[in-house]
Amino acid sequence: MEVVTKKDVDVVIVGAGFAGLCALHKLRKQGFNAMIIDAGSSVGGTWYWNRYPGLRVDIESLEYSFSFSDELQQEWEWSERYASQAELLRYLNHVADRFDLRKDISLNTRVVSAIFDDATDKWTIETKGGNQIKARYCVMATGFLSAPNKPNFSGLDRYEGKQYFTTKWPDEKVDFSDKRVGVIGTGSSGVQVITEIGKEAEHLTVFQRTPSFCVPLRNCPLPPEYEKSVKSNYAEWRRREREESFGGWISVNYKPVRMVTKSALEVTAEERLALYEDRYQSGGLALYNVYPDVYTDMEANDTLAEFLRDKIRERVNDPDVAELLVPTGYPVLGKRLCGDSGYYETYNQGNVSLVDVRDESIEFTTKGILVKGVEYELDSVVFATGYDALSGALLRIDIQGSGGSKLKEHWKDGALTALGMMTAGFPNMFFLNGPGSPSPLYQPVLLCEEQSDWVGAWIMDMRNKGLTRIEPTERLEEEWVEHSTKVINATIFPKAASWYVGKNIPGKPSIGLAYFGGIIEYRKRCAEVLSSGFKGFKLSAARK
Ligand code: N01
């Protein structure tokens, strides 16, 4: 039930995932009266809503965790190299208790609108239950992979079987053991859920539009000596993690590695393959740290793509099925690599079949799915169709800024932001891990920690000066979008139809969604906001 105890605060934070909990803790420590509102019945955000079988994070647990408290990072014991959803949810609940955050969190409370008042420089946040909360500042920690993408499949309303969404899995265990199951979607979520359902279903049919590049995660119990070595020097480990632009600090065979400084094309084929093999055997996302030109040059990129294509051919017994699973036509890393735990081997099982739908749209019948005139009868269909990423969760709330301007209108051609943190015409509203930020390729937990620090520093400075309103100028927003666009256009990323660039959703504009210039440049620009006296921002005091 919706219970909102506070009605007037300094800061409303929307979302109780990693970013929201971090912001609440940090802003409260600075003396701000802050509260979180979240639609879920528990804290956890993404890790609360997503609970499908097989879900675990693809960044190592010792990295994908808060660094703001050394006591916390020393005392929490991760059980596995890559944490499962259940363990992450336990961790976030522990954080909420350990830092006494719950008293300032309203759960079961969905924000439906946020409306800015130019006279008082305050937001009014309205909830589904009709509560209104006034706040000087609004911090949107709504998640960059939280708004589900539900494609409009033809005939779905007549399908009589059960439907499950990876983005909103039931609380209770779903038993697929005597069921004919279909899965649509073969991204990170699909790859994980397919591997698990394949172990159980009477028959599993996978409907694949685009194959993914998958690498073995090689999850295992966390080696005690590895944990000990990280914890003995966690500050240094975090420092190096923060210096790595892409994907955080990636270890290979439990040793930290950096990007090689050479071109993939200037070394011998043997040397290149040896490096790729080393990273592949190490497991997880280590292949993000190879040669820098795999991100900028299609020929260099294809050396890595071909290495991974051969791995698929080695792992799948039936050569025809293997060829269907081999990704072509887009660059490797252009979509996020999927960490797998036996995904390709699933297709060697007698109870699993693969249906290629790249040139066909899926049509539902009463009994199942029809593709190329063949009907697949299914008791259940699982949708692993991804997210309206980065901007989606924000645009699902009715956000009205200065003079009643609507965010939906302001962003109709793209997610325009300044530094991925604010947008012109929407004063006093901040985004954490939002559109225009480096979160898709950096480490979102570390990013939300830094962004919370910047928000705290900016509004503390304003408080000290008696100011009540901050917003970026349109010029600053244009500059940021121009810079972000120039950076991404020099990479391979626009060549893949991924959520990074909004091309996973028909008609979604690509502009401004993600910043691919790296954390170092991003951090420099954010630090300059305060040191330059808010250059590019308009600040003022309320008229009443
Ligand atoms: O979503 P996706 P996801 N007809 O967009 C298919 C993070 N994550 O939830 O590629 C048929 O990647 C679509 O096909 P196509 C991670 O950052 C992390 O899997 O558009 N198919 C694709 O195969 C990840 O990148 C973890 O042609 C349709 C799939 O659905 C991000 O979340 C776990 C379709 C969607 O794949 C998103 O991953 C899970 C249609 N009409 C998620 N529409 C870990 O940490 C869509 N598809 C391990």
Per-chain topology:
Elements: E1 8-14, H1 18-29, E2 34-37, H2 46-49, H3 70-75, H4 85-98, E3 105-106, E4 111-117, E5 122-127, E6 132-140, E7 162-165, E8 180-184, H5 188-198, E9 203-208, E10 214-216, H6 224-232, H7 234-243, E11 251-252, E12 255-256, H8 269-282, H9 298-315, H10 319-325, E13 338-340, H11 343-346, E14 352-356, E15 363-364, E16 368-371, E17 374-377, E18 380-383, H12 392-395, E19 398-400, H13 407-410, E20 429-431, H14 444-464, E21 469-472, H15 474-489, H16 519-531, E22 537-540
Parallel strand pairs: 1-2, 1-6, 2-3, 4-19, 6-20, 7-18, 8-9, 8-18, 9-14, 10-13
Antiparallel strand pairs: 4-5, 5-6, 11-12, 15-16, 16-17, 21-22
Helix pairs in contact: 1-14, 14-16
Bound molecules: 3-acetylpyridine adenine dinucleotide (N01).
3-acetylpyridine adenine dinucleotide is lined by residues 57-58, 145, 151, 184-190, 192, 209-210, 336, 339, 357, 362, 384-387, 497, 499, 504.
